[in-house]
Design brief:
The protein has 556 residues and is α/β, with parallel strands linked by helices. It folds into 3 domains: 120 residues, Rossmann fold (3-Layer(aba) Sandwich); 151 residues, Rossmann fold, CATH 3.40.50; 235 residues, Glycogen Phosphorylase B (Rossmann fold, 3-Layer(aba) Sandwich). It is 42% helix and 17% strand. It contains 18 helices and 19 strands. The strands form 4 sheets. It has a 9-stranded mixed sheet, sandwiched between helices. A 6-stranded parallel sheet has the order 16-15-14-17-18-19, with helices on both faces. The chain has a two-stranded antiparallel ribbon with strand order 3-4. Helix 2 crosses helix 3 and helix 15 packs across helix 17. The longest helix is centred in the last third of the chain and has 28 residues. The structure holds pyridoxal-5'-phosphate. GO terms for molecular function: glycogen phosphorylase activity; pyridoxal phosphate binding.
């Protein structure tokens, strides 16, 4: 790989994210946000973009979640081995409460022109290991401490490493304290807060991933003050940035020159949620993408490009998945029967159980094995509702042991097998709550056909009966949740039983054509490469050009 740390004319960007999903062996991610960041830096690497990624070394990762003999999920944590990371020899200091916290800076070395630096308060002998122990673990204090380390520590790491960047990208609100550090630096040079804020905005872009206002992180000012998150700013100044209580998303927006949502639909939702607030910049959308090298079977790619036998390769992937299910669960699913996949965070709006809601309809298909489903999921360790959702899916596995499977401890390795080996990828969240949803893109690239509601990325690619199937669009987003559920359930049964299943069993030729069209629809449009180029072309370059123009104006 080219060692191109700078390319004349191309902006050099520091990318901040709380989690990175690079590989199952590097468990510093929890789900979609981390996988997206991991796919992003892989694509940036392959496109030779100059990018510096900043994250946290989560010594115990997220959670390993298994199912006990009563069918309940339980969490285990352990210290992972990160001895393959490279010690930069650099440390940075931040203040949390009244403590001075020292963080080591590690280099996750195999990302070439896109170095990933991980901040770590958990090295041997550190009294502050709790701050970077478990991703999204602990309570509010742990979260704020980690956000201070990511944001403020991240900027200090860039300075200590002597890395000059043209722009800062805050990927989700966790990173916004980086903005207070950029402001503090300028105030230390003698500028007023207002001037420092204005100047900071000229170099920051912000991406928000949350589609519902309640899902956005908010902290009281008292605890921010106790934790020392003000970073030298005053209450009034912090309130101007994030309001009172302090919203990480609002602060992200007000610290940025431009901001984006992660699908076209989500961009509009973000505009509706925040656009009316004072000090909010232009909000548009850059649709997420996934890294084909990670998610697409190379044999599928080749068969697509050479008009080879997609079906044979698909069946090989399906057999590999069934073998994995047999090895781990002792269940032999049928190769010739339709296989649905559903792997998502355990959140009630995702409605993993929708397909079971009228057993009179679906029971005959599950009992005879005409339809088979593999689920996989993790719930946040403190999320009892999420754990109930998982326990409920496990109950259906017990009820239909030969056609319903729940794979515990969902991670990238399991995701990889599922998005290659299932026939159909099922996605039926309530609307409009999915910002983007990326697993369906991974499936589409492998010729695994999406059966999905029209939410997130789906509206930009999936066409009913052509490269996947869409549930009927119901009367409106304002429909009450319970009514949506009934509507979508009937729609799901009708399309599954009258369209998907007959095509699968009676019209293989059309099925394979749909696979072909699904790969064609997704391989560029929903690739992380397309996404990365858009961030450079639509956000990083304009922000740097704008700054140059302003500079020019002051000179003239
Ligand atoms: C792709 C992926 C996700 C995100 O998928 P969604 O469709 O956004 O829910 C989460 N976890 C893992 C392990 C993944 O591979």
């Amino acid at each position: 790989m080219a060692e191109c740390y700078t390319i004349p004319g191309i902006s050099r960007v520091a990318y901040f994210c709380m989690e990175y999903g690079l590989a199952a062996e590097m468990p510093i991610y929890s789900g979609g946000l981390g996988i997206l960041a991991g796919d992003y830096i892989k694509a940036a690497k392959e496109l030779s973009r100059p990018l510096v990624a900043i994250g946290i070394l989560w010594r115990q990762g997220y959670t390993e979640q298994h199912i006990d003999e009563n069918g309940q999920p339980y969490d285990t944590f352990r210290d992972y081995d990160f001895s393959h990371l490279q010690d930069t020899g650099i440390t940075v200091k931040v203040h949390v409460r009244s403590d001075e916290v020292t963080c080591k800076v590690w280099l996750c070395e195999n990302y070439g022109n896109v170095p990933l630096y991980l901040l770590d308060a958990g090295f041997p002998g550190s009294p502050h290991a709790w701050m970077t122990k478990q991703l999204y673990g602990g309570g509010r204090e742990e979260r704020i401490a980690a956000e201070i380390i990511l944001g403020i520590g991240g900027i200090r790491a860039l300075r200590a490493l002597n890395l000059d960047v043209d722009a800062y990208h805050f990927n989700e609100g966790h990173a916004v304290f980086a903005g207070t550090e950029l402001i503090r630096e300028k105030m230390a040079e003698g500028h007023s807060f207002e001037h420092a804020w204005l100047e900071t905005r000229q170099s920051v872009v912000f991406t928000t991933h949350t589609p519902v206002a309640a899902g956005n992180e908010v902290h009281g000012h008292d605890i921010l003050q106790q934790m020392n998150a003000y970073n030298g700013l005053t209450y009034d100044q912090m309130r101007e940035l994030g309001g009172d209580p302090f919203s990480m998303t609002v602060a992200g927006l007000r610290l940025a020159y431009m901001a984006n949502g992660v699908s076209k639909l989500h961009g509009r939702t973000v505009q509706r949620m925040w656009g009316h607030l004072e000090g909010v910049p232009l909000i548009f959308s850059i649709t997420n993408g996934v890294h084909p090298g990670t998610w697409q079977d190379p044999r599928i790619k080749q068969a697509f490009e050479t008009r080879g036998d997609l079906w044979a390769i698909h069946m090989d992937n399906k057999r590999q998945l069934l073998q994995y299910v047999k090895d781990t669960m002792g269940v032999q699913l049928r190769e010739e029967s339709l296989l649905l996949g559903f792997a998502r965070r355990a959140a009630s709006y995702k409605r993993g159980d929708l397909i079971f809601r009228d057993l009179d309809i679906i029971d005959p298909y599950l009992a005879t094995g005409k339809i088979q489903i593999i689920f996989s999921s993790k719930a946040h360790p403190a999320d009892t509702m999420g754990k109930e959702i998982i326990a409920n899916l496990v109950k259906f596995q017990k009820k239909y042991p030969n056609s319903v499977v729940f794979l515990e401890n969902y991670n990238m390795e399991i995701a990889k097998k599922l998005v290659r080996g299932c026939d159909v990828w099922l996605n039926n969240p309530r609307r409009p709550q999915e910002a983007s949803g990326t697993s369906g893109m991974k499936a589409a690239m492998n010729g695994v056909l999406n059966l999905t509601v029209e939410d997130g990325w789906v509206g930009e690619g999936v066409q009913h009966g052509i490269n996947g199937w869409l549930l009927d669009f119901h009367p409106g987003e304002d429909t009450a949740p319970a009514d949506q559920d009934v509507w979508d359930m009937h729609s799901l049964y009708r399309i599954l039983l009258q369209e998907v299943l007959p095509t699968y069993s009676k019209n293989r030729k059309h099925w394979v054509e749909m696979m072909q069209l699904s790969i064609d629809m997704s391989r560029w449009q929903f690739s992380a490469h397309r996404m990365c180029r858009e961030y450079y072309d639509l956000m990083y370059t304009p922000i740097v050009n704008n700054r140059k123009n302003r500079l020019l104006q002051t000179v003239m």
